[in-house]
Amino acid sequence: MDGGPRVPEQRRSGSAASAIAEPAALRFGVLGPVRAWRGGEPLNTGSPQQRALLAALLLREGRTATAAELIDALWGNEPPSQALAALRTYASRLRKILDPGVLASESGGYAVRSLGEGALDLAVAQDLAAEAEKSRSAGDLCHAREVLNRALALWDGEPLAGVPGPYADAQRVRLEEWRLQLLESRLDMDLEQGCHAEAVSELTALTAAHPLRERFRELLMLALYRSGRQAEALAVYADTRRLLAEELGVDPRPGLRELQQRILQADPALAEPSAPAAEPAAVPVRPAQLPASVPDFTGRAAFVGELSEVLASASEASAAGRVMAVSALAGIGGVGKTTLAVHVAHRARPAFPDGQLYVDLQGAGPRPAEPETVLGSFLRALGTADSAIPDSLEERAALYRSVLDGRRVLVLLDNAKDAAQVRPLLPGTEGCAALVTSRVRMLDLAGAHLVDLDVMSPDEALALFTKIVGEERVAAEREAALDVVAACGFLPLAIRIAASRLAARRTWTVSVLAAKLADERRRLDELQAGDLAVKATFELGYGQLEPAQARAFRLLGLADGPDMSLAAAAAVLDLPAEETEDLLESLVDTSLLESAAPGRYRFHDLVRLYARACAERDEQAPGEREAAMSRLLDFYLATAAGVYTIERPGDRLVDHLEPTEYPGLVFEDRHRAHDWLYSEAICLLACVRQSTRPDQLRRAVDLLWAAIDLAESGANSKEYEATGTAVRAAAQSCRDERAEARALVTLANGHHMSGRFELAGQEAAEAVRLAEVADDPLPQCWASNMLGVIALYQSRYDVGEGHLTRAIESFRSAGDRPGEASALCNLSRIHLATGRTVSAVSLAQQGTDMYDDMGHAFKGANGRYALGLALTQSGQLELAAERLEEARDLFRDSRQRLWEGMTLFRLAEVDLAARRLAQAATHAESALTLLRGIGGEWRRGNVLTALGRALSGIGQSGRAQVCLQEALAIFEALGAPEADEVRALLKPLTLA
Length: 992
Prior knowledge:
It comes from Streptomyces diastatochromogenes. Belongs to the AfsR/DnrI/RedD regulatory family. One of its GO terms (molecular function) is ADP binding. This is Regulator. Among the domains are: 8-143, Orthogonal Bundle (Arc Repressor Mutant, subunit A), CATH 1.10.10; 301-452, Rossmann fold; 458-530, no CATH class; 545-620, Winged helix-like DNA-binding domain superfamily/Winged helix DNA-binding domain (Arc Repressor Mutant, subunit A), CATH 1.10.10.10; 622-735, no CATH class; 915-992, Alpha Horseshoe (Serine Threonine Protein Phosphatase 5, Tetratricopeptide repeat), CATH 1.25.40. The protein is built from 47 helices and 15 strands. Strand 8, helix 17 (419-422) and strand 9 (433-438) form a beta-alpha-beta unit. The relative contact order is 0.03.
């Protein structure tokens, strides 16, 4: 490694320069295409000749190159007539691209100076190579290999790719030679650490790419020999000797000849395995290698039937001369792939009278079984003598297929790594069949019947648990048993472990086990018994991931939502959507992640817990977990704010939200914006609940506020209120009056929508007080507006008018016209309740006009709702119906189920006033349907009253009495004054 090129001046410009380096420093790459970046932004380095000039200067180690030297470097012996002018033009263009002072002109030549630490990829590779050599000398081979791999990873294709000129040609050769030297050093250390089998495949490729490079041949011979493949090792020497003689007319170098002799002499220093004993002549055998089927196999009837049908087709294929049947089962570790495959294989044994082969390919482990090794064991099981088993994979596979020809054999390939490992092991002849299990979906296994195995259904899970624990214990605590299997995520391995622990502890009740599994922090630790452990199963899959996959797995598991969109995942990982999708799909293929729907992904519950444990254990970068969740919060807040803006143009709320650093999605269409909000509702609220750290709390509260449609629609009101309660508690704990005031606004709004007016009023009043303390005007406006509405419902009209008057003034002062329009419409209802019908109509019309001027669709519906009420009381029934129908359509379009239902109730009131009794009943019934489970009991009582009146008018007095009695019970429980009206309506029906 000492022979590598050095560029010290470019790498180290002095500690002072390093200390004041700008964040957007220049970086250059020569170990691939010649490129330049300022920070993360790529720079246009110009034409090929211009890049050739840049490369020549970067590789001069900071020294000045004369014009003549540079002309020779770019054009060699045949420069153009205007070479000097062209050179100066290239230099001038580069100077404009680079930072001031980087391209210096000296004595008619040029030099690249003042580059910061790590500015050139070649310099970074040199430092890493030196560090690796130092670690190797100190005996730390693990670190040396890791550092050397980092150095090799800096190569991005051919060095100086696409750069013309003799100088670039010479440097390309030099840099490629150095790369090969680094590879030799790293492979040498691989063998020193016993990684022989792993090195064989890489060395095979390298010897093919560089057939005359004897060091690679020598390492390959040693790797093969230490892997127990002596004949192959000697064959490498014979191939090398023949190639060198034909190509160069020389013999192998002494080191290679010496290694051949040591292999022939079985030198103990080469760690040779003991010489194989002579094997007896082969005798025909019928292998029966299937593991025992579990006696308590449960459920999976559909999968058993499907796979049995595929295997049965193998005998039909034999009769028809078709190829063998192959089924590949994929699924997460612990989902029961092996158990199912073994069960199906035993059922299918009669169809394969010539035997059944089985192998655990250890695909989830660090050292998957080599196909040639497996073929050797299969051939022995089929009666082939060791002396007749060839050395190469291709020859063994061919012999394997020949031995199986004419036989009907079932091959169970368990725990496969990938399709490449499986292909040589497939029989390939009619009458035979193969069952493959893997954590990876084998999309590239041609002709295979693919089966994705999911967790058990709740009934299957409970049945398995009962078989192991016993009917009596489960029957006595059925609910606790259901809690146990749910905590196991319906994963068969987890259920088996939990049940086995309980079965072995007669003093435990099922409830004791359920309580132990209820703690998510301890759940994975509880799910182990003997050599079975859910965590160990997941560890095998995790250990196979590439670094980028592992990082994605860890960070995505941090979010609490039931699933995650691609855009949200991109925010968590801080990667482009395309790269994120590739990573997520690769995790789906490993079965560590599930594709919930196109563009949405989810973890199994236990896998999520494991991912979080990995994040705590393996995430090395300081604050990376917190940064990932902060980006997710930013993404949701920025996107929700955009949705709010589309729905409420001109609303000032978005101007008062916490700033975000990570961008959100942008929607041009309000329907797409709504689609996003409601599809992300549960995940968004989960993000709010997770973001209660002091540095995230204000953004979390603002996200809840910006997503207020979720409460007003009624679709997610319970989750919304629970989230508001959580963030309010967090704000109290942090003593953050601003955050608490805003959380109280969201809570008060939620209570208002649910009909809990007393509680809503208390929360709104406290919000006003805290907002004044925090000098936060917007919550004061909102809470005052809400206090006015609540006072209206409580018939405290003077108090309500005072709150609404203050709200109007506050909104006007803040320049919030939508807020002002809302308060005007609410004030209209106060005027209506106090007999000021004309002014009520005027106020509602004024608010509606303001909404329409701003292009508010959803809030325009609120204005029309208020106007419809005023017009109804003023006797303008047809006009009232028109406004309310417009409001209903707008609410429906905005997915505001609560307000759509309330508008239908108001239409029923218009119909009652107009004596359209049948239509009134229809509108009231529709309102009840929409308000089922939302809006609170007070609203339900009002709708039941309207329905009772309508039914009474059309002669359905019995049904009307039932509706009115239910309404009366509601109002009496609430202590509401509406109870008196309902008693009056019931009296004639009761007397009749």
